[in-house]
Amino acid sequence: MFEDLQQPKNCDIFCTVVDNFGDAGVCWRLARQLASEYGWRVRLWIDDTAPLLRMAPDHAAGPVEVRLWPKMWPNPWLAEDTADVVIEAFACEPPAPYVEAMATRARSPVWLNLEYLSAESWVAGCHGLSSPHPRLPLVKHFFFPGFDPGTGGLLRERDYEARREAFDESAFRAEFGLPQKAPDETTISLFSYPNPPLPDLLRAWAASPRPIRLLQPGSGETARIEGNLTVHPLPFLPQPRYDELLWACDLNFVRGEDSFVRAQWAAKPFVWHIYPQTDEAHQAKLDAFLSIHPAGPQLKAFWQAWNGAGTPDWPEFAATLPGLKAPMQQWAKTLAARPDLANRLVQFCLERL
User: For 275-284, how does the pLDDT look when each residue is reduced to its tens digit (9 = 90+)?
Assistant: First the structure.
């Protein structure tokens, strides 16, 4: 089985950037893992490369070939220039000439719609479902990331544990001009969407009886001290360095999908700012995750308030932080015991090629 998974394949991943970093972050992470761990020849077609310049500044060095999605796609596209595996991220739909060319191949490609991550109960039942093209001899399959064993799993690189074990927190703090951590300091990272509760939370941190050091990657903020709060801006960190930031903190505020998953692997207490939707659909997704996480009852009030349903009560939440460590670690172990998303996706494709 392991040898089968290593067979090189051609793969095209299509990505349109909606959430600035989230869509590009997930696609880049998957593309890099398929190329480096499974030997696939991967092209990432993306309509905006700016996010990659920040989260993966070395992306041009390989092993993924990054292509800017052209506004005018060549028509016709040649069948031999399509890939064995075609992944459209988040229903972005490949260009029509490319899809037409897919249909002329001697053997149809495996065509996947990589969906957004959700803990909702219906996801496992929809994972892997097929959708025949209405006109062409092609079939698309829905591939759902998820937390249930019946879903596509979560992105996690093979070297993740080795990198975490080798992490030197003292060296990390020194590199970014942070003093060595005081015994009573709470170190917090903040990566969120614009959020009305934030000013009140900053005031609560300033009034905290314990010193709080806030690390803000790519925020554009200036360093300052207010009461017991020290704000320390950091540059925007590439993906591997962002993992290090999460490991260095006692509490991580994350957003969207990619940093949300990385916070879970870090096994530290975290607060999730889910991508807001106008129809409030995000609240159902938030509640679904809280219902399966072992620390859900302790997280619920603060998380819901952070996501617009109330006022975050920092003193109450701070009192729960010591008790969150064990369930966060257990949750990460539970997820790590299952195959990761890239592994499941490769197996799914090889069974259909």
Answer: 888 777 789 9
